[in-house]
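Weekly sync, protein design subgroup
Attendees: M.S., D.O., the rotation student, P.L. (late)

Item 1: inverse folding check
M.S. brought a backbone from last month's batch and wanted to see whether the design step gives back something sensible before we order anything. D.O. pointed out we never logged the input encoding, so this time it goes straight into the notes. Structure tokens as presented (361 positions):
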């Protein structure tokens, strides 16, 4: 047992999502969204480096020494996996660990809309789960892939950096590839994927133009592709994808995306005020013909109107879902205001002035 495992045991028992270890600081955990200091001594650089290197693969140590940051996964058997990032900062080395539960929660257990299970059964197309860092994108995607694994007979190929949730093949064959260990990049793995007979492809993150282009092409050519982006709404997700490309290619990308896109799930997490834990609010855009036409015609500013009127297709807006949580007294009004798209709707509920004075009156 590595010395650092004691910290993981502590955060696991407390229900913390993240552990921060930083030279010149006490350990800090993120508990229900807030940072809290752990009663422990302040780490010195050399002491922390020794602690971290005890669990680090040799190749990752070399990469960290050469570049100053590195990502990998670490597992404490019988407890959980951890997504790890090491980096250097002005006081010395530092690390952040995100806990990934060993048990994959189902869509029902997570309280996700039934539509998300239907996404796992689509024959082809592009499905994106978006949101800020720490909003639960990986957990939602894992639940969707798990549903496909249990209910289809297909080949699922995942490309991740690093592998987070480990899926045990059930009805499906599942192959999980990790950047650095199994492939050099998302783009390289996607190019190879088209020769590996997959039916469902999970791309951990669409980080660059080539990866986005290949993901769209794979979705257009009969594959069901899941991926993530760091965007806060469905409409902004569509704009972000198109804006990655040079101006002379954007019309072509709009056409391809309009054919490929099946759904965008934009989610955000809120600290609950009625009990311990966090609540999720999801915006869902379904790629019905009206939505595809707006993308093709560069009228994405009208997407919100489609979502407002598309409830029969399972569409819902983020603000409506935030309002439901607020009316149920599950979340704080100030938190609702901070994460809402149309903040004017929520200003009447504020108990104190907005945190961000730049938002205007």
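Designed sequence read out in the meeting:
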């Amino acid at each position: 047992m590595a010395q650092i495992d004691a910290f993981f045991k502590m955060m696991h028992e407390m229900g913390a999502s993240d552990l921060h270890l930083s030279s010149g600081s006490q350990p800090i955990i993120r508990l229900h969204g807030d940072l809290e200091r752990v009663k422990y001594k302040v780490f010195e650089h050399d002491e922390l480096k020794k602690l971290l290197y005890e669990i680090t693969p040799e190749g990752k140590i070399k990469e960290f020494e050469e570049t100053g940051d590195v990502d990998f996964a670490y597992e404490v058997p019988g407890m959980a996996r951890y997504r790890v990032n090491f980096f250097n900062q002005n006081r010395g080395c530092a690390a952040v660990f995100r806990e990934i539960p060993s048990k994959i929660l189902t869509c029902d257990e997570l309280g996700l809309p039934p539509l998300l299970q239907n996404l796992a059964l689509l024959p082809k197309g592009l499905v994106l789960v978006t949101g800020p860092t720490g909003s639960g994108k990986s957990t939602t995607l894992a639940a969707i892939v798990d549903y496909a694994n249990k209910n289809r007979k297909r080949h699922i190929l995942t490309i991740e950096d690093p592998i987070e949730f480990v899926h045990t093949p059930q009805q499906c064959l599942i192959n999980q590839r990790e950047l650095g260990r199994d492939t050099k990049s998302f783009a390289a793995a996607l190019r190879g994927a088209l020769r590996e007979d997959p039916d469902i492809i999970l791309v951990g993150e669409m980080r660059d133009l080539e990866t986005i282009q290949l993901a769209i092409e794979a979705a257009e050519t009969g594959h069901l592709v899941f991926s993530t982006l760091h965007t806060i709404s469905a409409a902004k997700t569509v704009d972000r994808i198109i804006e990655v490309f040079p101006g002379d290619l954007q019309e072509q990308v709009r056409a391809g995306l309009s054919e490929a896109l099946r759904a965008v799930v934009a989610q955000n997490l809120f600290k609950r005020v009625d009990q311990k834990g966090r609540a999720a609010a999801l915006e869902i855009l379904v790629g019905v013909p009206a939505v595809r036409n707006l993308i093709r015609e560069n009228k994405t500013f009208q997407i919100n109107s489609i979502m407002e009127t598309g409830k029969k297709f399972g569409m819902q807006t983020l603000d409506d879902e935030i309002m439901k949580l607020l009316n149920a007294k599950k979340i704080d009004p100030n938190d609702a205001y901070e994460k809402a798209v149309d903040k004017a709707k929520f200003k009447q509920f504020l108990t104190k002035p907005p945190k961000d004075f730049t938002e205007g009156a």
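Discussion: The chain has two domains: 5-101, 107-349. DSSP finds 14 helices and 13 strands in the chain.
Action: P.L. to compare against the previous round before Friday.
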